[in-house]
Design brief:
Rossmann fold, five-stranded mixed sheet
């Protein structure tokens, strides 16, 4: 499957994320049908007309997402932002295969997703470290579940413990780690299985600003040159711009939809400590925030 242009009659609720795009494009609502340049890149993840509804106690249906189309090309970093409760985590759970969409389809590298996404790993808001296992044992869990030998799993886990800066803590337990150290262990746990797609649901939201910045730099170090596709959920627009190749904006719910996409043209590698002071970053922030702000205000009206 290739990331191609929008075809005649397809919804404007669409993102195309590809390694190279000839120019910056932003698609917004108000009945806009985009005409995108022809793209020729492998799609790592594709949502087609995906709607997700949940039953309410009254028997009525609550529609979290409606008619969402989303393409993410292999090797790219896509962030999704939006107001609280707009369905960002729902979108990620669908990508992971933890939720079956009410309608529409999801495909992974051209194959329809049916059940758990075996080509993806998932880094949750709260780490999934088991308190009775050491850091090394937690990092090795994914390999163990996949049937790799204990010796191989332990050796590779040790390498990843060092890679994420936890050397000397491999035999420690999660309760003995700081918040940032737990996040490093969770990152190693997600990446050790060598996934094609990494799903990340606000993984650094609970960290203090300095630790968070350090973790953002570390995730970029892991991703750069890996060829992996990252789908990253965040409330923090600055974080989204700093990390991503492209930022997509979800509208306020219910029936959330993609209302804009913005290519991030900032050069790589990026110095996330200073990038917020750069004029290109500030201009892009203003552009994205001008649309996102309206959705945030609409969410306040619903409270």
């Amino acid at each position: 499957m290739r990331c191609g242009p929008l075809t005649e009659g397809r919804s404007w609720l669409s993102i195309r994320l590809c390694r190279v795009q000839p120019r910056h494009r932003t698609e917004c609502s108000a009945g806009y049908n985009a005409v995108l340049p022809t793209l020729d890149h492998t799609c790592a993840l594709r949502f087609e007309a995906v709607t997700q509804s949940f039953p309410k106690p009254s028997g009525e249906a609550h529609t979290a997402l409606e008619g969402v189309n989303l393409d993410a090309a292999a090797g790219t970093f896509l962030s999704v932002v939006g107001p609280s409760g707009c369905g960002k985590s729902t979108l990620l759970n669908i990508a992971a295969g933890l939720l079956q969409p009410t309608s529409g389809a999801v495909s992974v590298f051209g194959q329809r997703l049916d059940g758990v996404n075996r080509r993806a790993s998932y880094m949750f808001q709260q780490d999934a470290l088991l308190p009775w296992k050491t850091v090394r044992e937690n990092v090795a869990l994914g390999l163990t579940f996949r049937g790799q030998s204990a010796a191989e799993s332990n050796q590779l886990a040790g390498e990843w413990v060092r890679r994420v800066g936890l050397q000397g803590f491999g035999d420690s337990y999660p309760a003995q780690l700081s918040g940032g150290m737990r996040k490093r262990a969770a990152m190693a746990q997600s990446w050790i299985v060598d996934p094609d797609i990494v799903l990340m649901d606000e993984p650094f939201a609970a960290l203090d600003v300095h630790t968070r910045l350090r973790m953002e730099n570390e995730i970029l170090d892991l991703w750069t040159g890996s060829g992996k596709t990252v789908l990253f959920i965040t409330h923090d627009l600055e974080e989204a711009i700093g990390l991503s190749d492209e930022v997509a904006v979800l509208s306020v719910g219910p029936a959330s939809r993609i209302i804009a996409r913005h290519k991030v043209d900032l050069p790589r590698p990026r110095n996330l400590i200073d990038i917020r002071t750069e004029s290109g970053f500030q201009e892009l922030y203003k552009t994205i925030w001008s649309g996102l702000r309206q959705e945030v205000l609409r969410s306040y009206e619903q409270d």
